[in-house]
Every structure is written in structure tokens, then in C-alpha cells.
Amino acid sequence: MLYSKEVISIHNTEKEVFLYLKKTRNHSYRITANKISMTLPSVYKNPETIDKHKNELLEKIKTLLVAQPKWVNTEHILDFPRLTIVNDEYALIRKEEGIYKVELLVNQKKIYLPFLLTDNDKSRLSKLIIQAYHKKIDARVRYINAITTAKTITHVTIKNNQSTWGLCSSRGEITLSLHTLFAPLWVIDYIIVHELCHLEHHDHSPRFWSLVERFYPKYKLAKKFLKERGMELAY
Ligand SMILES: [Zn+2]
Known about the structure:
alpha/beta, Zincin-like, 2 domains, four-stranded mixed beta sheet
């Protein structure tokens, strides 16, 4: 259940903060490009108790975000000279001003970008990356499925989704966020294993996590990576 929503500002970037109360024993949080989700146990009923734990969590998150160097700001991922997409390293080349078309050259591993990126440029880049990598991700999901849960997979989709890393429907549809493609392959594999395990358990119960652990013994490292550096994987 969504309990509250607010906006905080870090490094001059506004982030929406959502607080959920759920059937869980843990205090947890997740940071994505423009959103912070915090979860507290729903056994907390007293608003003062909830506020106290919320503020503790928020302080922790702020410390973590402020400690990140400024360049980590996700707006700037495309300001680096290189971008890794599913372990393929692309050179990012800025185009002369006046030439505005975004290009993704898969064979040459080059991405041409205008100096100033508009939202249209970003969505064109997203579309090109999804087109170019759908087959590879589809094959990866099906391969990992074959050596783990071996369930029926109907569709594998990549979406420009900022709020989740992956989704899984009961009909065997696996969706990955475009931004997972910028993570190292071992982290992408974790997200895939995580979603595949949801075909067995549709929750985040201890049984779910022990299944994840069976197929991916070091899954906690991947979770840690996403928690600490997940916000870098977006533009
Ligand atoms: Zn999950």
C-alpha cells in the first residue's frame, strides 16, 4: 500500500520518494533514475513510528546519494565516451551541431549523438537499442530459463521502463527494462533469474529468495550493485 509520496532534491535533481507499507519484516529501499521507493513493514500502524523509520531510511539514502560524485547523475550517462550495452562497448561520438539524427551502428560499435540531446533523441536512441538487442536478450532469457526453472516463456519484451528492472506475468511473459541492458552481464543475468523465479513464486517470500539463491548463489552481490549503482543505468 502506498503510504506517502514526497519530492526531495539531491545535486539539484528532484527525486520522487514513495513510501510503501507491505507485509514484510524488512526496511528496504530502491533507487532508480528519478524515483526512490521505500518499504516498511505494514505492522507499523502508529504514524509517529512510521515517520521515525521513514526518516531513518531517508537519511541513509540521502547520505548514499550525496556521497556519489556529481557525474554519477543519470542525466549524464551519455556524456561519457563509452556506453556498454549487454557487454558490447560502444563509442559515443557527438555530432556537429545542426545534424540532429541519433544513430546506432551495431557492427562498428558506434553511437552518434547530437551535442544537445532532446527527449526525442533519447526516445529514438531507446528505440534503436531495443530493436538491436531484442533478439540477444530474448535468447539469453530462454537460455537461462532452460538451465534453471525450465518454464514456458511466451514473450520476452524490452521496455523503456524506469520504475522496475524486470516484470514477469503469470502467462510466461518476461519484460526487462531498457536500463538493465547498461548493467554488466552478471547483473542482467540476475535480473533474468529473478524474473524467471517469479514464474514459480509470485512474491518475494523466503521461498522465492531461496530459489533465486539456488540458481544464482551470489545474487546478493547483484542486488547490491543495483541498489548502489542502479541510478547510473539510465539517461
Ligand atoms: Zn521481484
